[in-house]
Specification:
The protein is of the alpha/beta class and about 220 residues long. The protein has one domain: Ribonuclease H-like superfamily/Ribonuclease H (Nucleotidyltransferase, domain 5, 2-Layer Sandwich). It has a 5-stranded mixed beta sheet. The protein is globular, with a radius of gyration of 18 Å. The termini are far apart.
Length: about 220
C-alpha cells in the first residue's frame, strides 16, 4: 500500500464515439498530482490526440508505457462493443467504458484508502462509479487544457486504432485500417457492396443511411 494521504489525479478521455464500426474506447491515466510531464523530445508538444499526427501519438504512447513501466504513472483502457453500443446507446456505452477504465487504473495503482484522488474527464463523459470515494469532474475541452487528460486521449486513440487495424485483417474490404470505422466514401461504398459486419453499429448505420450516406447497405 502507498503512503496514506497522497494526492493523485486521473485523466480520462474516449476515442471512437462517432464511427460506424468498432468499439468505443476510453483511456485513463493516473499520476501523482504534482507529476511533471516532460515531452520525449523538444519538438513534441502534448495536445489532444486529434491534433497530433499518428507518429506523434505513437511517440507519446511509448512515453506513457515507459513511464508506466518505471512506476511513475499508471495507464488503463477499456472498450465497449458495437453490440452493447446498439443496445444502450453511445453515451451510456462511453460512460461504461470510462467507469471500467478508471476502476482498472485505480486497482493497478494500489492506492491507499485515504489517498485523495480527483478524476478529470473530457466533456461528454459522466460515468457512475458506485461505492467510490473518487471526485469526478467532467470538463469541456479537458483534453486540451488538462495534460493528464491529453495523455488519456492519446492512450485511447492509439489503443483503438490498433484494434481497428486488427479488425481490418478479420473483416477485409471495409478499410478499417485507414478509416478506423468512420463513414468515409470508401467505407460507405464497401457497406453497399458487402453489407454490414458483426462489428458495425447497426443503429449508426440506420441513421447514416437515412442521411444518404449508404445507397443500399444490405441487411442492417
Amino acid at each position: 500500500m502507498r503512503k496514506k494521504g497522497k494526492k493523485w489525479i486521473i485523466g480520462a478521455d474516449e476515442a471512437g464515439r462517432g464511427p460506424l464500426a468498432g468499439p468505443v474506447t476510453v483511456g485513463a491515466i493516473l499520476a501523482p498530482a504534482n507529476f511533471k510531464i516532460t515531452p520525449p523530445n523538444s519538438k513534441l508538444t502534448l495536445k489532444d490526440s486529434k491534433k497530433l499526427t499518428k507518429r506523434q501519438r505513437e511517440e507519446w504512447f511509448r512515453w506513457i508505457k515507459k513511464n508506466e513501466k518505471e512506476g511513475r504513472i499508471f495507464c488503463a483502457t477499456a472498450n465497449v462493443s458495437p453490440k452493447t453500443i446498439d443496445r444502450i446507446n453511445i453515451s451510456r456505452a462511453a460512460d461504461r467504458a470510462a467507469a471500467r477504465a478508471i476502476k482498472k487504473v485505480v486497482r493497478m495503482s494500489g492506492l491507499a484508502e485515504r489517498d485523495i484522488v480527483i478524476a478529470y474527464l473530457d466533456g461528454g463523459l459522466y460515468p457512475k462509479i458506485p461505492n467510490s470515494a473518487l471526485a469526478l469532474s467532467t470538463r469541456i475541452r479537458a483534453d486540451e487544457t488538462i495534460p493528464v487528460v491529453s495523455l488519456a486521449s492519446i492512450a485511447a486513440k492509439v489503443t483503438r486504432d490498433s484494434l481497428m487495424d486488427n479488425l481490418e485483417r478479420k473483416y477485409p474490404g471495409y478499410g478499417f485500417a485507414v478509416n478506423k470505422g468512420y463513414g468515409t466514401r470508401f467505407h460507405s461504398n464497401a457497406i453497399t457492396k458487402l453489407g454490414c459486419s458483426s462489428v458495425h453499429r447497426k443503429t449508426f448505420l440506420r441513421l447514416f443511411r437515412r442521411k444518404g450516406g449508404i445507397a443500399k447497405a444490405g441487411s442492417i
